Amino acid sequence: MNDPAWRRTEKFVRDLSWVSVLFLAARAASALLHVAAGRRLGPAQYGDVHLALSVSDGLALLAAGLAPALIRQAGAGGQALSESASAAFAVFAGACALLWGSVSFWGPALAEGLRLPPALPYWALGHATCAGLFVLCGAVLLAGARFRARGLAEALYQTAALAAFALWTSRGGRGYGSLVGCLCLAFLLAAGFCVFFWPGMRARRPGPGFSAEFLRYLGWACLNAALAVVVLAAPRILLNYHRGGAAVGLYGAYFTATVLVAVAGSGIVSTVLFASSRSPEAQAWAWERLPRTGLALALPAYLALLVCGRLGLTFFGSGYPFRGTWLVLAAAAALAFFIKELPAQLMAARDIRGLRAACGGNLAGAVAALAVGPGAVARWGVAGALLCLCLALCASLLAYALWYRRAILGRLQSEAAPGGMSVPISDEPR
User: Fold this and answer.
1) Would you report the helix, strand and coil content of the chain in percent, each value rounded to 5?
2) Rounded to two decimals, what is the model's pTM?
3) Helix axes 4-59, 210-243, angle to 10 degrees
4) pLDDT digits (tens, 9 = 90+) for 410-421
């Protein structure tokens, strides 16, 4: 067909198919790794793993902001991609040096104040550094539209982490450090794989006017990532503070069996969606299809998450008791995460105004988490933490729905009306 919308749909599905197959294989290995770690380590040590990943997310904010900034700035590739990659890695290297120095000085106080194991901030920073390097190397592939190579890198990372953990534990390794160390090694291996498949490019100094635009987008992207991390990390840190590491381990099992499934699904779609939706035409195409597709899939997705959660908890073993209320809350949080991530990625790909709107949604979620979390977790423990996560994600989703109604829906309706003129989706909201 010669219809532009059909051709765009066909290309999106083709790119998505490569990412889906490879990411699904990677997430299957990831689920197996978490189940094996949960059974091997027990709730208390597995809770320390989740705490380490929470702190790591907080320390990896810069990489989380650099990746979308790099993809957005790179355009179609060539010189722009080289300039963006050079700037991103330079900023990342400087930030890593600053963070290592800061954590070396403040690490003991941080661990004591948050009631964390003494070595956990250092494991977390090592994980954040390796994960950030992998994210940036993978972002170069996405900016160059090399989706198959990016999917292969993800599959390699998860498979290598699982193999390393199996080898480590077979030789008597125990403790949360064994899993975090295996993840770090796997990140480095996958980052090297990404570099091998990079588009032809070389280090290039950014031209005049590049830095201001890149840093402005980077600032908002880092803020957006920081707010998203608050939503996901706050329940775990509060739960550790009030109920201890074993309670975090129980929370982590439910989180892994439901929310991580949604993270995998949204990651598959968002990987292609962000890189493919930078033009006004692509934005209009995506926004027109997103709401009805999401509503049609909501109920089946929730039922599937309930089934996944129940099966996952069975695999975790008897050390992780089943609670129906916990599963219902965890599945609801997972569904809210999946739905809210799609408009968030579209907004971030749109332009800096869209990225500010994405920040608004995550700000609503962070405020809800910090407002509800302390009281709910102190009173209800694991159930309170899952409720906090669910309400925070629903608050973000509500903010995105209001923004969609105000900024997008009216334009799509006016364009569909007889004689309606096409209005670029990247203009300011009415």
Assistant:
1) 85, 0, 15
2) 0.78
3) 60
4) 555 554 444 443
